[in-house]
User: Fold Leucyl/cystinyl aminopeptidase from Oncorhynchus kisutch.
Amino acid sequence: SESELCLLQEEIGETDERASLPRNMIENTMFEEEPDVVDLALEPDEVVYEPRSSRLLVRGLGENDLDDEEEDYESSARLLGMSFMNRSSTHNSSSSPYNRQAPPRLCSCPSARMLVVGVFILVLVASMAMALYFLPGCTFTKAGCGKANSSIPMEPSYPNSTNGELFPWNELRLPASVRPVNYDLSLTPNLTSMTFTGRTVINMTILHDTKRIVLHSSELIITKATFQDKSVEVKVLEYKPWQQIAVSFLEDLKVGQVCVLTLDYAANLSHTYDGFYNSSYNDKTGAKRVLAATQFEPQAARKAFPCFDEPAFKATFLVRITREPGYITLSNMPQAKTTTLPSGLLEDEFEQTAVNMSTYLVAFIVANFTSITRNVSNTLVSVYSVPEKKEHTHYALDTASTLLHFYNTFFHIDYPLRKLDLVAIPDFLAGAMENWGLITFRETSLLVGNQSSPLDKQLIANVVAHELAHQWFGNLVTMRWWNDLWLNEGFATYWQYTSLMTEFPQLDLDNVFLGVRFKAMAKDSLNSSHPVSVSSQVTTPEQVSEMFDSVTYEKGASLLLMLKTTLPDGQFRKGIIKYLDNYRGSNTVTEDLWNSLTQVGVQESVSDMMRTWTLQNGFPLVTVSRKGGHVTLTQEPFLLSADNATHTSNLWHIPVTYVNDNCSSAPSCRQIFTLRNKTATLNVSDSVKWLKLNYMNTGFYIVHYGDEGWATLIDALKTDINTLTPHDRASLIHNIFALSRLGRVSFRQVLNLLDYTTNETETAPLTEALSQLSSVYRLLDKRQEQRLLARMKVYIWGHFGQLMDSQDWGEEESVSRQELRSVLLEMACSLGRQNCTDQATALYDQWTNSNQTKQIPGDLQQVVFSTAAQADLRWLSLMEAYSSTTYDSEKRKILQALASTQDPRSIVWILSTGLEGGIIQTQELPLVISTVSDGFAGHLLVWDFVKENWDRIIEKFPVGSYPIQSIIKSTTSQFSTQTHLEEVQGFFSSLKERGSQMRSVQESLETIRLNQLWMDRNLPTLRIWL
Ligand SMILES: [Zn+2]
Assistant:
């Protein structure tokens, strides 16, 4: 009855969107989505999960006023690295999960009848809960307690299928009773009608007696289904909201039984960037060429074929694809044979996969690409592109060959397939995708001209190194579920830098990796961050998409670096080899990694240490205070918070490294001290003048030296800049800006440190200083603080002007010098330093006048193009160059230049053209948006544009995905007023299920509040001191 519904809603604190669900669903979701209760213990691994029902017991007995307690649960849970995100795709509550608000009370005047019914239900729930309470609880493992639900002896309640019958399953995750063994896929794409048909034959084994087979399928029309004998048709039920289909049986399928399900289906090729999608490009004659390719990670294999689309359901695959002559097809495995069909079409059949793999790694392509190849060990490596770009594939082939050899040797496990294809796809959303044996890339991430600059090549090498590392970390050993995505991405990111530092030291990756660690800290210092290994719910598609963020990738990689530098030489590698060997072909959770390390002799205390980093979000601030030889270290969470309300008592085991004035720059100077408690004392000799902590910034923490400590370090740098390594200098600059943002040091102290930079010539510290200053400048610019901006320019010229003017504009070999030069000149020209703009304009005119034959050095292209784009006529000539160039790296820089214009009409044009696709591919829209956002003229226009076109944008880029995260961040992160805060809040909360729940929205609101606070605190200081 209605009142029952009403009461239940109050009980579970959800909104009226649930009212439309059948009652059984509400009960069910109540069990489904209640946050688990955790017992607090000091050691995260001793925590015991209570059955979910015990929480219901508490609530069922009438404590409906739990908001405060929930806050407690939430903050204490954060200690364990849990954040309660009480969401689902089908019924989102309108309040943000990060800001728990009192639920709307729908039934404010309970009638007597309702109370009676309510009490009855409470008693029912309570007694059920009592019964469940005495069922054995399960011990908390890092993977959570997934099996707890299946032991509930309650008649489950089910949603309705599309045809009205009950769907025999009621969870987003698939049942574990059936395991796929092999898929036999036949696909017939039609590139004229942009449709395809398919047949999928799935061989399965039954793991537990069951009456149902449940699997994923999305946007596929199943035309026929047979079970076992192909003449026996079965009925397929579909529950669309969860993208599941099911076949029910009257009698149990028995344990150990082998089954075959055959499904025929039809579908459209996707017009977004996932599933089996179509793409096109214009060839050199201007004719439109079409192709079809796949992108399945994280959850889109189900859009191409019905499957058990979870990473732990590994199986083998045999793929057949039909094509017209004139096209080629590619898939994970080498081609086995080609058959001519009666229709004149050709059918390519690929070998069955030699390995068990997850569905998200399956891939196939139909296109007219050409390739170059090389044999490396026993693997044929090929790079594919559209025919006109074949010349741009050599660098990728060289790099891939070198790295394949490196990984084969380093990991002691050979790449298991006979071929490895790297394919540049003309319109592709991600940077690249590591499909086993068939890695797909954006053209800009794979193709590079021979004469391109080392800086352009560095980008390609990075992406190739990352995707190749995935062939082991991700493909061979896969995380069990997306909550541990860092086991894939943190490792791939870590190896990307490490392998390149070893094999291509000239590419200067150690500076890049340092910048990445700083970037990860920026995101992880906000309340909206999440632990690297997420133990709360990651189930809905949005939650899964959101895992692909800087914390998972970059903090993950940073933690691995910290671990590696903490262990004795060689031990990290040994542990990693053990991990790969233990789990090859299967799936893992984070604990498996620590166990593998223990097996090679790594102390248990190291695993304990790492748990404090992977299970909690955020990172520590270490404060140093010194009395003679006694150095006291104190830790606290480094949490940027505008309201001071949400401080946690998180503790980390911090491997604190330090050097002192007697021995400060060589690696052998490094000493280490593990800070496990809130405070500890370290003894040094009285004669030591100063300490610098976090040697080379390999630890994921920030250090505050106190007024005196900073002063002695600054003195030391002014006396001899080389007393610290460039990384340590960059680390000091980063830390002091961060402390100023936290309100621990004044901006005056920041400027005190920066005074030493007039003697600085190294890339890492200078790029860090300039990037910090330019973000301050951009904030002031958006507030139109004209007088301050003018003074800040004077300050920048005073400190860096000479260095800017002394830069050479010719060819430069060193990547590190190129990086520095481009950063210096981009800042100089964008702030209008005459010397710079004159040189840039002259180079641009030479380039156009020589019909683009007089090359601009690659690292200077951006500054030259962007400077040129500020003049109307040159902007138009750049537009022409954009359409005609075939060099992808150049094209991207021209696009950024075009988007940097300060002419409002051109800005509006470029935004709408980017959304349209065609002249500017839609894949570039996030880049266009972020470039426009940086400038003054466009930052309000682009925000309006995003609001107005939100629905079209999320049609192209899924809610929660990385491009959407980037769009939200770039359009809102420079706001610093109450009006904008309210506007951003208002807009996103109006979106409801179209995006209001995203973590990036919370992050954006926090950032605006912090900007506001920063302005309040620092504007007066800046007015005095600048
Ligand atoms: Zn990756």
User: Anything to note?
Assistant: Residues 999-1025 form the longest helix (27 residues). Residues 968 and 1000 are 7 Å apart (CA to CA).
